[in-house]
Amino acid sequence: MLRSSFQLLINLSLTLAAHSVLATQHEWNFVQNGTTGIVALESIIVSDTLAIFFDRAANDPLEDDGHAAWGALWNLDTNIASPLDPITDSFCASGSFLSNGTMVSVGGNIPRIPEAGDGRNEIRFWHPCDDPNGIGCSLFEDPATLHLAETRWYPSSIRIFDGSLMILGGMHKDTPFYNTDPANNFEFFPPKDGGVPRPSDLLARTVPANMFPRAFALPDGKVFIASNNQTIIYDVEEDRETRLPDIPNGVRVTNPFDGTATLLPLYPPDYIPEILVCGGTNTSDQIPVEQLSSQDPASDQCSRMTLTPEGIQKGWEIERMLEPRMMPEMVLMPNGQVIIINGAQTGYASVTHVKDPVGNNSNADHPAFTPSIYTPDAPLGHRISNEGMPTTDIARVYHSSVTLTQLGNLMVAGSNPNVLITNDTEYHSEFRVEYLNPPYMTMERPMLSNAPDKIAFNSKFHVDISIPAGLRGGEMKVALMDLGFSSHAFHSSSRLVFMEAQLSNKGKSLIIKSPPNNRVYPPGPAYIFVTVDDVTSPGVRVLMGNGAAPPVKDQGVRI
């Protein structure tokens, strides 16, 4: 009897231990893997296996032909960085994809080393590359013939409905903290209007805190823009700005007062756009920088607005994050949730200028180490949670980046609130890469295959799917995603459009209806993810549209 009772206790202990292991396996977790060699202050996924990082041309430890590299190709399979060879300095630039799949990096700065050229009005190209290790692939630049109309440091850029790039704002040269030499205009690549930039009343009104404006292509082809604490809808075709309600409570969200923003997922059949803006500060932009402190509290405010006549009339709906955040970033997840990650709880963006920089360099302090999940369809007041979320011990403050990968996890890199590479200060230059893994990364997952290379708008197409037995019959969501270009607390061109889908009778293929036109999803690269219940597949890469170079004509049907 005693022996059987003892055996029962052993069996019970083993069962509890097994459940504990399973619970640990199926939880959110951070995993550190590899070092970047350069500060990954800009990042973009360019294939299933490759990401590109950019930093400033200065003194990063990764070398390229005997000098410090400022571009790197990151292998997502091996977690190894190899140097890229840009010609000009890409520091604090922006970028996105064009309709033909080419990645474009725009703007930059005056370099610190002679091997780099002035990047402020330059354009860098990465053409679609099929080799999983990037062999034979490289950046292309032709500064003499392919360049911007204006010098731009700290610009933003987005892909718009005709597959071209809209480039917004920035400054002409390095100015201390505030933007005192602004480029208060928009231009396009390929150029429109004979290459003459379009003046922007919004950017002119929002000096001096109007760098890296937050912009999103809307499903009717217009563009939402937030700059400082003001917002507009911009009609690209009519060159007309329509002013929207200001962000409440004087909260400012563009550099050097970086909050973040995202276009929430678009659902058929109406694709009604909603904007979410989080973090930043309600500090006045008229206070001299030498009076600001690294200990000034950031804002915990999130503001959300539906961009319909009724939604605009109602204005912004306010909710609160679990902590204040300066320089956070929001990442769309394939199931429609949003991850809020990175940043600091006090201070400001930029470096060295406030009255009490931390370690003589950082304008911000008190890093936010624990990500939160924002659930858009939850009731107000119950949308933000960090339950079950892990905590990192790596500060990700100024010059950090983060992006979703093809596998469905988040790659987190960078952080350098210093003028140059610095290793002996509290917030040192950071080269370690972390992956934030959702619980499904350790589960048996749906798998997609045989997706078309190119997908026409307003069409039906087939994708093969394998669904694990335990998930069959579960709720299914099919997401079409642009993973975006991460730089300075903002994900340029980030987008999620849900698509209608029907599972075949045998459960082995999906019939999917693509977005109705190139305004709902601007033509260009995309990933398709399928989520069954809470388990998301790896993504499959496709090209939306006919793959033509921009500008492309309207495709599909207008809604």
TrEMBL record:
Residues 68-440 form the Glyoxal oxidase N-terminal domain. Pfam families: Glyoxal_oxid_N (PF07250), GO-like_E_set (PF09118). Keywords: Signal. Residues 1-23 form the signal peptide. Residues 445-542 form the Galactose oxidase-like Early set domain. Gene3D superfamilies: Galactose oxidase/kelch, beta-propeller, Immunoglobulins. It comes from the Eukaryota. This is Glyoxal oxidase. It comes from Leucocoprinus birnbaumii.
